């Protein structure tokens, strides 16, 4: 399993960057997790839009779905130019029907509901879900393929259920929108100390901090998290790749 960071920023993309977007690859299958602002532009440095096999969406805040529309138009235009490819499945929860219906566009993309408590098979990946603590319905994902496990927290303040959900993961892609001296609970986000505590207690192999803040010294996030977790900790950076 290979993870490539397309966009690591929370809220909105920094200049010439992208908000949430992560590409998972295994056995030639390409799965995009979230598709925030700037993701389509950045993705094309790694993969053409028509080469995606599936997209999965954690929730419907703009920094996670802003580029769904332009992804749909990219595939539409490439079809006009003579390329032939199947309808792209976009998996999302259906607890916000207004936003869920936008995942379907002509014969270009098809919105497909996932359900908490059920395992979703997407190509070679098996995906399970955990509802997060966030102002809108949002789901973390545990993604497994060939015995390897990646966990994506999506957006959430810390909750104890994360520990068992992420137990023993090879990679924890953990949101970290706040520094250790800040309380992100009201905004539905984690701080660096909580991310480190989470990683330690779940016994994950490496912690990747993402959904990064736009202020402060980002290196402090690592030093603060390392006071709780002594394993590998990295900041998510554009086009960083992780092999599991």
Description:
With 244 residues, the protein is an alpha/beta fold. The protein has a single domain (2-243), classed as Ribonuclease Z/Hydroxyacylglutathione hydrolase-like (Metallo-beta-lactamase, Chain A), CATH 3.60.15.10. The protein is built from 7 helices and 14 strands. It has helices at 39-43, 62-65, 68-80, 97-100, 161-165, 192-202, 219-226, and strands spanning 2-7, 21-26, 29-33, 54-56, 88-92, 109-113, 120-122, 125-131, 139-145, 148-152, 171-175, 206-210, 232-235, 241-243. The protein has a 7-stranded mixed β-sheet with strand order 6-5-4-3-2-1-14. A 7-stranded mixed β-sheet has the order 7-8-9-10-11-12-13. Helix 6 (192-202) links the parallel strand 11 (171-175) and strand 12. The model has no long low-confidence stretch (mean pLDDT 98).
What brief labels describe this structure?
244 residues, 14 strands, 7-stranded mixed β-sheet, globular, alpha/beta, Metallo-beta-lactamase, Chain A
Number of distinct helices? 7
- Distance between the first and last residues' Cα: 5 Å
Give the uncertain stretches in residue-range form. none
CATH superfamily: Ribonuclease Z/Hydroxyacylglutathione hydrolase-like
List the strand order in the largest sheet.
6-5-4-3-2-1-14
């Amino acid at each position: 399993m290979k993870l490539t960071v397309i966009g690591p920023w929370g809220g909105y993309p920094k200049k010439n960057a992208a908000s949430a977007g992560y590409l998972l690859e295994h056995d030639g299958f390409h799965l995009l997790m979230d598709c925030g602002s700037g993701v389509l532009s950045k993705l094309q440095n790694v993969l053409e839009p028509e080469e995606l096999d599936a997209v999965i969406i954690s929730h419907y805040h703009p920094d996670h779905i802003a580029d769904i529309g332009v992804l749909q138009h990219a595939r539409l235009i490439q079809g006009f130019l003579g390329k032939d490819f199947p309808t792209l499945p976009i998996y999302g929860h259906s607890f916000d029907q207004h936003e869920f219906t936008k995942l379907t566009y002509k014969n270009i993309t098809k919105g497909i509901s996932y359900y908490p408590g059920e395992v979703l098979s997407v190509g070679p990946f098996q995906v399970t879900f955990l509802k997060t603590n966030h102002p809108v319905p949002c789901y973390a994902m545990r993604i497994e393929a060939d015995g390897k496990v990646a966990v994506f927290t999506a957006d959430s303040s810390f909750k104890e259920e994360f520990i068992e959900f992420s137990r023993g993961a090879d990679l924890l892609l953990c949101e970290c929108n706040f520094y250790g001296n800040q309380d992100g609970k009201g905004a539905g986000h984690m701080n660096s100390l909580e991310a480190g505590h989470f990683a330690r207690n779940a016994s994950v192999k490496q912690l990747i901090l993402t959904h990064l803040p736009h202020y402060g010294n980002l290196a402090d996030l690592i030093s603060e998290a390392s006071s709780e977790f002594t394993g590998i900790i990295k900041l998510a950076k554009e086009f960083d790749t992780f092999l599991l």
